[in-house]
Amino acid sequence: MTETADVVLIGGGIMSATLGTLISELQPDWKIVVYERLGEVAEESSSAWNNAGTGHAALCELNYMPEAKDGTVDPAKAISINEQFQQSRQFWSSLVEAGVLDEPSTFINSTPHMTFVRGEKDVAYLKKRYEALKDQPLFAGIEYSEDSRVINQWAPLLMDKRRAGESFAATRAPAGTDVDFGALTRQMFAALRERGVEVITNREVRKLKRRPDGSWRVRWRDTVGRTPGATDAKFVFVGAGGWAIKLLQSSGIPEISGYGVFPIGGQWLKTSNPKIVARHRAKVYSQASVGAPPMSVPHLDTRVVDGETSLLFGPFATFSPKFLMNGSWFDLFAQVRPGNILPMLKVAVDNPGLIKYLIGELLKNHAKKVDSLREFMPTAKDEDWELLNAGQRAQVMKKDPKKVGVLQFGTEVVTGADGSIAGLLGASPGASTAVSIMLGLLKTCFPDRIDEWEPRLRELIPSYGETLNPRPEAADAVLEETAETLGIGR
């Protein structure tokens, strides 16, 4: 027997949780079904230990403001990322006020965001970046210093036994946050269940097929009893991490032609030593290594997970052909199609630095990884840090009119021409900007309903349809209101 639904969401991560929550608020009469192949939701990239939990607002991430060849830095992308994170803050605030989410400290906590660089070239760049951001309303309060005494007050572990005469600089944004996206995802799904949404785990979607009436037949299999089944849905969202490309390819939509993904795994160094943890309350980012993908920018982070505070350093890249931690060893090769083989080969030819970087990372043992940590924290001791496996990321490879194929940083929504199916590819800063990404999806896939939904969307996200940075008073009001509701910094 074939089941029916208005909406099927594939994947139990932050993206499906966000989209499901939005649709349930906008169209409570629609039947929504969620399928997750694992035994619990939020076990892959949304798990707190599988992502940085930075609350990406471009306060500290240098890759959102690269230095141009002429030496200038453009704040436009950083401002755009921050705008998107403010939408997430507003949405979460609304859900807290409505009782949909639990006490805010269970998923978000104030944690200053810092950038720390060494060497005259990077110091000069960081100062230019600071000058470009300090007068932007959404970056109000950002600080800059080259003074070891000031930086020591911000983050003592960075300066202990630092070599004399070394050139360094740091910025600090007190309003940064640490977000437990695993807890946030679980709370959203728990609320959806209470509203009657079917959130079904241990159910793996195997194939998507368009039906004559334009709807989709979602073929699935229970992973415990191996029982097959199918659900017919008017709309399908594929939020299955690296698995998404396989399902979008199975759907046959031409829009997925030319896309491929390159899997990159990760590891963290972690410590819960209370003496060390007590001396570092910040997320500190730096420059990426030569050839490293943007998602591998090194950072020393305060993390609060299930009420326990610890420190993470990394990520260190690993390699596996799997698209998910619980994926297949054949994933990398099974994605190859006539439409994407040339872009994928071109990416391989154009990125020898990435291959060299990955080989170097794979050759690092525990001691070598602690050596990398000592560039941030000179006093780090091997015995204080344990190695923790992180999630798999699937970096987007796609056609490019000029280069045949490019390796792309970030996330991308691939949508069928009629808007009845959409899927998300890519990685950072996905989770932090999930609300913005899903708002864009709603506008694209439901153009005949978005105007009707707008009043409710404005209740949930007061800045919906507008930008805050050009309006300092509005930006200040939104920052203050969400900070008060969420119990975090402005």
From TrEMBL:
<keyword id="KW-0285">Flavoprotein</keyword>
<dbReference type="InterPro" id="IPR036188">
    <property type="entry name" value="FAD/NAD-bd_sf"/>
</dbReference>
<dbReference type="Pfam" id="PF06039">
    <property type="entry name" value="Mqo"/>
</dbReference>
<keyword id="KW-0560">Oxidoreductase</keyword>
<dbReference type="GO" id="GO:0008924">
    <property type="term" value="F:L-malate dehydrogenase (quinone) activity"/>
</dbReference>
<keyword id="KW-0816">Tricarboxylic acid cycle</keyword>
<comment type="similarity">
    <text>Belongs to the MQO family.</text>
</comment>
<dbReference type="InterPro" id="IPR006231">
    <property type="entry name" value="MQO"/>
</dbReference>
<keyword id="KW-0274">FAD</keyword>
<protein>
    <recommendedName>
        <fullName>Probable malate:quinone oxidoreductase</fullName>
        <ecNumber>1.1.5.4</ecNumber>
    </recommendedName>
</protein>
<comment type="pathway">
    <text>Carbohydrate metabolism; tricarboxylic acid cycle; oxaloacetate from (S)-malate (quinone route): step 1/1.</text>
</comment>
